[in-house]
Amino acid sequence: MSFSNIMDSNSYRGQPPAGNTEPLIVARERLLGPANRLFYERPVHIVRGRGVRLYDADGLEYLDAYNNVVSVGHCEPRVVDAVTRQMSTLNTHTRYLHQGILDYSERLLAGMPDAVDQVMYACTGSEANDLALRVANMYTGSTGVIITTDAYHGNTAAVTAISPSLGGAGTLGANVRAVPPPDSYRVPADELAERFAADVSRAAEDLIAAGHGVSCLVLDTIFSSDGVYATPNVLGPAVDAVRRFGGVFIADEVQPGFVRTGEAMWGFDRHRVVPDLVTMGKPMGNGMPVAAMAGRSEVIAPFATGVAYFNTFAGNPVSMAAATAVLDVIDDDGLLDNAREVGAVLRGELAGIGDPRLGDVRGAGLYIGVEIVSDPRARTPDRAEAISLVNALRERRVLISVCGTQGHVLKIRPPLVFSQNDVDWFCSAFADALAR
């Protein structure tokens, strides 16, 4: 079986006994096939959720410190109610007039830079990124794409070709160049921005020499799959560089968007840059299938006037109701402030542990990466220990995963309603896992 860093670093491989979940695992493998991976050495059979808590088939309670899909919490009542009411009234495609999509679009764009003035809808982040690539290609007349070395942008054919973290049989497209992310653990802070821009410029020159030209720079603005690099004000020179070469900047906000970083609505805001295109996905609907690509109307125009785009269920009334309710919860419950304050407490607690295996604790808001190393002086990635810690936490009913090129960075990304009490549970379990 081929290996995928993002899918297999923390996956069930069938070696340890699975206990009472074994029949489900056997049925899953028979019906779904080997491509569908499960988390953890002992997979978890979850049957219910509320807020940041999950419950398995035996009634045991788990702390979800990983789930970004249900951004405002599992089964958030206001989202559930909005979806239920709209589903009981109407759900159809967007070729009929409907007020819901217009109201939501006005509200979404009001939270964007003024230059980002139009939005198109999809059902998944993968579709949104696929659409952004098409728009960029038509606007620039070029096909060359620049990404980071362990990026993940989705699973259509086009975005798989710009998602090296998927690994396995997937390969980068001939028109794709990957550059190292701005690694704040190994590169001095005052060199991050210029070094990253220089790498982007070299990639652009290579694409032009190969005859592809430069279509776009596509970045997850917190570099979540690369290892969670959250230093602010790093992207400006790289964005300027790609525009000098004729390309556009696509900010993939599926992970850092919707107040995840605790500093702004969008990850790109932390870098004081204005994207040409912005893509959104999972957290937008708290689990409902809704995604979007927003952008500058002049960048979108060649595609919009040349292609009759239609995505049957994109922007449907039920998904728009869910997305609207998510914005309501973010605003009403002060989740921007909560992400900033609780995230700072959690990072502080982790940084204060002082265990030499914890080479670096970094992040923004409620997106935290903990670099696990075997040698803190050499800063040597320790994949085995990272996976061991993830599974030790799972045994203590705390759920996280890993990221990074070596699969050695603990990825901590709880729902935005994570509280101080949840921090206490997490840190207690983490200390116990370290002492195991």
TrEMBL record:
Domain of life: Bacteria
Compositionally biased residues, Polar residues: 1-13
Pfam families listed in its UniProt record: Aminotran_3
Keyword Ribonucleoprotein part of the UniProt annotation: no
This protein's record includes keyword Metal-binding: no
InterPro entries: Aminotrans_3, Aminotrans_3_PPA_site, PyrdxlP-dep_Trfase, PyrdxlP-dep_Trfase_major, PyrdxlP-dep_Trfase_small
Protein keywords: Isomerase, Pyridoxal phosphate
EC number(s) from the headed UniProt entry: 5.1.1.21
Chain segments annotated as coiled-coil in the UniProt record: none
Molecular function terms from GO: isomerase activity; pyridoxal phosphate binding; transaminase activity
Annotated protein name in UniProt: Isoleucine 2-epimerase
